[in-house]
Amino acid sequence: MILFNPTLSRLVRRGPAALSLAAVPLALSAGPAWAHASDRGLIMLLPTDRYLVGGAIAVAVSFGLLAFSPDRLFRWAATARLRLFTIDDRWRVVTSIAAFALFLGLIATGLLGSRDPLSNPLTLTIWTLWWVCITLLHGLFGNLWAWINPWTGPYRLLRRLAGGDAEPPLTLPARLGYWPAVLAFAGFAWFEQVDIAPDDPERLAIAAGTYWAVTFIGILLFGEKAWLSRAECFSVFYRIISRVAPLSAEPVAGDESRRRLVLRPPGAAVLGAPLLPISGLFFLMLTLSSVSSEDFNRTFFWLGLHGVNPLEYPGRSGTMVINSIGIVLVWAALIAVFAGAVALGNRMAGRGTGLPESLGRLAMTIAPISLAFHLAHYLTAVMVNAQYALLAASDPFGRGSDLLGLGGFQVTTSFLMNYESVETIWNLQAAAIVGGHVLAVYMAHLVALRLHGDARAATVSQVPLAVVMVLYTLFGLWLLATPIAA
User: Fold this and answer.
1) Which helix (H) or strand (E) segment is 365 a member of?
2) Taking phi first (over 0 means left), then psi (-120 to 50 degrees means alpha), and beta for anything else, what does residue 32 get?
3) Which of 238, 257, 291, 328 is 20 to 30 A from 95, alpha carbon to alpha carbon?
4) Number of H helices, E strands in the chain
């Protein structure tokens, strides 16, 4: 434990998760248990005053947006756009193949390189550069994953070499909706938060390779568009959260090979999103709840409910059952509270029908809060682990090489030992969560105007959901302020 000021900080060992549908079988196999060694960033507990101030700001701004913002501002945001240049969509093949080549190299380092997660490029790239940084970039630059996923290029190249444009042999049933993606992301979340050794490089390499193969087989059988749009969980996830971004790529009329970059107010892209079915609602709520349940499962409150002494934390091996329950409970609670708020809002606005449509449209408006939680919870981990990633890239197989010429570069955490820099980090964490909440309220009102057509009805319908969003924001701030077992 390290004291920065009267606030007590903790050493976090939150490590990476495997990208695999084979998460459960891997969990049953024998192997060394790395106790989240790949994430040694120091995460400071948020001071109570910032927790309270952040909550008060969230409440004030939320209801200020709903009550006092002119209706014409929201209607302008719904249509305003600046058309930029066009890009050739065929470059996706090149960028995807490059991503696939990088993926193969990372798998090789996982199997043949250092077994220390902080020295292996696989764990650091996947969980510092990809799961944290790339996810956050989707909130600014749109759906980057459509360009850098490791399947599109190899699949299209294989089709070209086969010399045919034949339809895939099977059709993915429409009635399945997003349930395959729900199953995949549930396995991902479980492995990340519950599995006893999620960051062992060899284990992660096997898991990631297995997931790539399962996905590629799915694409071969059901087609690229069908599988990536409804079954591959990360393609679905990134497509949804990219609706937050001010930058997006839209098809060019009459030219399927080109897309035009469009700049518009953040979150406005949610209006053009397809309606989410019930399976899509469950998927999105799972991705949102998984961000919160990771820390909630290690709070003194949750451990105390199950008779676990947080000061003698037994580690993952002793909490697998209760942490599995925690993931499900947070997921179920978020679905129930969200659905109840939307139903109540419809009733208050005098709209007795259309609940499935309201749920499907409004679910995506919580995405900014998910991105905000991502930033707040992983901020210091990125600041520390990005340095380890640089060293690992210079010596990918742990043989003492120095490909980047770093010389005597040393990882530093000195910025976590200075009060001014620590205070800045605290403020950024609180501001991220409050800002994400405000953007979510704004997006929800845009959607409500489209659903109800009338400004007054839209405002009334949003009051229950705004309350839920405020409570969710307070929950996130509480997680940053409450002691958590390390």
Assistant:
1) none
2) beta
3) 291
4) 19, 6
Structure pTM?
0.85
- Cα dist from 77 to 70, 271, 373, 451, 471, whole Å: 12, 10, 25, 16, 26
Q: Which of 126-130, 170-174, 459-463, 471-475 has the lowest mean pLDDT?
A: 471-475
Report the distance separating Cα 430 and Cα 433, nearest Å: 5
- What does the mean pLDDT of the chain come to? 84
The ranges assigned to domains in the chain are 2-481
User: CB-based contacts of 29: which residues, under 8 Å, 6+ apart?
Assistant: none
What single string gives the DSSP state of each residue in 339-384? HHHHHHHHHHTT--S-HHHHHHHHGGGGHHHHHHHHHHHHHHHHHH
pLDDT tens digits, residue range 117-144?
989 999 999 988 999 999 999 999 999 9
Q: How many Cα atoms sit within 13 Å of 416 on the Cβ side?
A: 23
Q: Residue 107: count other Cβ atoms within 10 Å of its Cβ.
A: 18
Residue 186: what are its φ and ψ, rounded to 5°? -65, -40
CA–CA gap between residue 292 and residue 295 (Å, rounded): 6
Q: What share of the chain is helix, strand, coil (3-state, %, to 5)?
A: 65, 5, 25
Nearest to 199 by CA among 139, 274, 128: 128
Report the distance separating Cα 147 and Cα 152, nearest Å.
Answer: 8
Rg value, the chain, Cα: 23
DSSP string, 183-226: HHHHHHHHHHHT-S-TT-HHHHHHHHHHHHHHHHHHHHHH-HHH
Write out the E strands in 292-445: none
